[in-house]
């Protein structure tokens, strides 16, 4: 089985143009492909994870990835799948986010000589002359076709700004520049990007002729990615400062039973023969499959040592043996504990709740415990003496933080 057939087998491909050419290029290791990342935050999150895994798979098969940082498109914001206008970031914020992305991507992709490259579309988009761009790209885009694009449907209902409307032209121009400057012959992206991706292929063909070999675009399915990476407190980040390795492990350990096989297929490098065997598992064996998934992904993102620590911490807690040294902890400062700390504040400080409103609901619903005792009073204040015993603060059945005095 070639790598293209494996992508199909794992459910990664939703749509594709020129399938015969794509298959041949990918399987022979001749694809120079790109995936774009708009730096809208200071960390990649689980929603990006599928794309990173795909890049790694294709690179392992000899293909060359181009990681395109959206230093230019990030100044506009992709309207795909949105009903509101994205927050407009400053150039400084965008450049800072790109620096964070670069560091995190290097854990997945080999950027050594000839293996992969990282490019910033801000290099050509930020200083683009408007009149020259309109003359060069504008004649090749039909407004009628653009308005029918799925990526604009939701925004049209609530008001689509010209800023967002121009995004398709920018993404199409990206592919054209990558083709011209780096020999890029393929683009991968989420299925909500299909119209934007076709724009790039069509622009290259119209400007350079139908025989241009950048006519191959494969689409990475995005439906599953949209579901991944969201919790009650927000996104699941790849940056350990934003989502600890333990919390990252626990996120995957707690996925729905129905999603275990899907996640193993889309995100791990476990052979399909083993995954098909795990598909048959039920009950306790299904929990074992979740543990395998959690360890595999934590190891991929944070390394073997952190994955082992997270696994050991989870086992010690759920076996009832108490908190281990590897359980996430929160150190209270003198200012925070001088007069004691109330339960709502403590839940927010430790990251177990995103807000006091959410913390209040957690307590009222009976989901919070302190030092093994359920907390039912939203006004409960823990004294310095109680906090000094390094108690365990718990939300729900599987979220813990050790308080360090």
From TrEMBL:
User: Domain Tyrosine--tRNA ligase SYY-like C-terminal spans what residues?
Assistant: 325-401
What Pfam families does this protein map onto? SYY_C-terminal, tRNA-synt_1b
The entry's L-tyrosine-binding residues are: 34, 167, 171
- The protein's name: Tyrosine--tRNA ligase
Catalyses: tRNA(Tyr) + L-tyrosine + ATP = L-tyrosyl-tRNA(Tyr) + AMP + diphosphate + H(+)
Q: Which InterPro entries match?
A: aa-tRNA-synth_I_CS (IPR001412), aa-tRNA-synth_Ic (IPR002305), Rossmann-like_a/b/a_fold (IPR014729), S4_RNA-bd_sf (IPR036986), SYY-like_C (IPR054608), Tyr-tRNA-ligase (IPR002307), Tyr-tRNA-ligase_bac-type (IPR024088), Tyr-tRNA-ligase_bac_1 (IPR024107)
Which residues are listed for ATP binding in this entry?
Answer: 230
Q: Name one GO biological process term.
A: tyrosyl-tRNA aminoacylation
Q: Where is this motif: 'KMSKS' region?
A: 227-231
* Superkingdom, taxonomy of origin: Bacteria
NCBIfam families in UniProt: tyrS
- State where the protein is found: Cytoplasm
Keywords per UniProt: Aminoacyl-tRNA synthetase, ATP-binding, Cytoplasm, Ligase, Nucleotide-binding, Protein biosynthesis, RNA-binding
Motif 'HIGH' region: where in chain:
39-48
């Amino acid at each position: 089985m070639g790598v293209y057939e494996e992508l199909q087998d794992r459910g990664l491909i939703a749509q594709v143009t020129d399938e015969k050419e794509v298959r041949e290029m990918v399987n022979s290791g001749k694809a120079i492909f790109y995936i774009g990342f708009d730096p809208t935050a200071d960390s990649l999150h689980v929603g990006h994870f599928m794309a990173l895994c795909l890049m790694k798979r294709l690179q392992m098969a000899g293909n060359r990835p181009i990681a395109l940082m959206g230093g230019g498109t990030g100044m506009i914001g992709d309207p795909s799948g949105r009903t509101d206008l994205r927050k407009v970031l400053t150039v400084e914020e965008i450049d800072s986010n790109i620096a964070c992305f670069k560091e995190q991507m290097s854990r997945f992709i080999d950027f050594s000589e000839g293996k992969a490259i990282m490019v910033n579309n801000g290099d050509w988009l930020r200083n683009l002359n408007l009149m020259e761009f309109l003359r060069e790209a504008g004649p090749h885009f039909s407004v009628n076709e653009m308005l029918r694009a799925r990526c604009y449907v939701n925004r049209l209902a609530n008001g689509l700004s010209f800023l967002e409307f121009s995004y398709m032209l920018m993404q199409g121009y990206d592919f054209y520049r990558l083709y011209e400057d780096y020999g890029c012959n393929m683009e991968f992206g989420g299925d909500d990007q299909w119209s934007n991706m076709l724009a790039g292929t069509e622009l290259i063909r119209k400007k350079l002729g139908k025989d241009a070999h950048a006519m191959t675009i494969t689409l990475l399915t995005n439906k599953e990615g949209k579901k991944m990476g969201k919790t009650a407190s927000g996104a699941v980040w790849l940056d350990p400062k934003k989502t600890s390795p333990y919390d990252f492990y626990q996120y995957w350990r707690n996925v729905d039973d129905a999603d275990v096989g899907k996640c193993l297929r889309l995100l791990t490098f476990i052979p399909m023969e083993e995954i098909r065997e795990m598909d048959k598992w039920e009950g306790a064996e299904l929990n074992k499959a979740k543990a395998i998934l959690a360890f595999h992904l934590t190891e991929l993102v944070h390394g073997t040592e952190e994955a082992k620590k997270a696994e050991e911490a989870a086992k010690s807690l759920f076996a009832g043996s108490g908190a281990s040294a590897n359980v996430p902890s929160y150190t209270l400062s003198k200012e925070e504990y001088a007069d004691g700390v109330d339960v709502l504040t403590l839940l927010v400080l430790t990251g177990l709740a995103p807000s006091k409103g959410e913390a209040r609901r957690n307590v009222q619903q009976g989901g919070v415990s302190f030092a093994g005792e359920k907390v039912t009073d939203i006004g409960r204040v823990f004294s310095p003496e109680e906090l000094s015993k390094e108690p365990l603060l718990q939300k729900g059945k599987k979220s813990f933080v050790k308080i360090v005095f």
